[in-house]
């Protein structure tokens, strides 16, 4: 083949060899349907915006003090930020193993970090030598960095006189596979395969995790160590909890600590009516003593809210005893927001994939758990920002669809910011759509409220029935593979 000239440059050689000798930089741009090389990649693409956002959150704003006097030995080629960002990207993109983390570091690339020629075993050893303190500091750094953004879009109109609103609940984590020597001979349903339980607080206004306790005992009651989860919260906070935390000592302790609480009423709970604000058929708003008998009774008086809707009786208890501060409809709508922590647990397990553990090594399992919580903080913050920018209710924005769009972000975005691009394609991609959440309906009251007399007692001597709880005969004895600690 003789000398040949094309539009993109000059070529010469034979049929076996083509050598590029010159490339003209002043040529017109190639059409949009032509495949582009890496040099034409959009530096402001959505996928790079997402990676850059994660990288800015995990990298320390100030250089560590150890950088001034470098310790002995060769500096690590693979930094902890590089490794953590690779794990976060693997979780976000729905990858299924630590081998995918290795491929990101050595093949696909992670942010502005260079490609490294590490082996798969070297990456695993590096993960095993990474302390959980690194991940814990990273989670705290991300949560602190997102505080200003989430506070700007917080739902402050939700009971504004309360300082904070938290949902309290716990969940059991799924089991690991039997791939290590210490669990290889365990039965499929062995409790040693279960990772543990999470007891957590979720900020309803800011849509952020604020307190997480990891518990090794998967059979323990919800009320075990619950005071450690709540202790240290700002006074005047409101806690929303389900029936697993229903307890007279627990209610009294919360009131003594200066917290407000709202709970459902457990069946067959005895009470004594002190004052009736309003009663209309099955609708009742009254002040009561919990525990009508001397053997078991609550110290502080509480408020009972009761109404019927579609044949179902709803009963709520709270220590907010003034109807003008919390109406019946507000109490019903507010308690419905407790479901948001259940959806947040679902996002951790299904959307961020911690129902399938990448390893059965305890350290690697906990590292994946930390990474999932870091991504969850970012995902919930972006969820609230999209809803605020679109001027729609929070749950008109689909959190699973948002995670899918972030995982499959295009490499070309026309230079648009991430939020603006999500708003532009939100309705077309199913990100913004009408929510199917059912709003609780409280019957209209035809009678006026009767105020409580000023001399009505507010406290009495408590007496708690310390029942002897016998262990379940079918509960197996086991030695946990994990340990109890505070995640955040």
UniProtKB/TrEMBL annotation:
<dbReference type="GO" id="GO:0003677">
    <property type="term" value="F:DNA binding"/>
</dbReference>
<dbReference type="Pfam" id="PF01609">
    <property type="entry name" value="DDE_Tnp_1"/>
</dbReference>
<keyword id="KW-0233">DNA recombination</keyword>
<keyword id="KW-0815">Transposition</keyword>
<keyword id="KW-0238">DNA-binding</keyword>
<dbReference type="InterPro" id="IPR002559">
    <property type="entry name" value="Transposase_11"/>
</dbReference>
<dbReference type="InterPro" id="IPR012337">
    <property type="entry name" value="RNaseH-like_sf"/>
</dbReference>
<dbReference type="InterPro" id="IPR047952">
    <property type="entry name" value="Transpos_IS4"/>
</dbReference>
<protein>
    <recommendedName>
        <fullName>Transposase IS4-like domain-containing protein</fullName>
    </recommendedName>
</protein>
<feature type="domain" description="Transposase IS4-like">
    <location>
        <begin position="225"/>
        <end position="374"/>
    </location>
</feature>
<dbReference type="GO" id="GO:0006313">
    <property type="term" value="P:DNA transposition"/>
</dbReference>
<dbReference type="GO" id="GO:0004803">
    <property type="term" value="F:transposase activity"/>
</dbReference>
<comment type="similarity">
    <text>Belongs to the transposase 11 family.</text>
</comment>
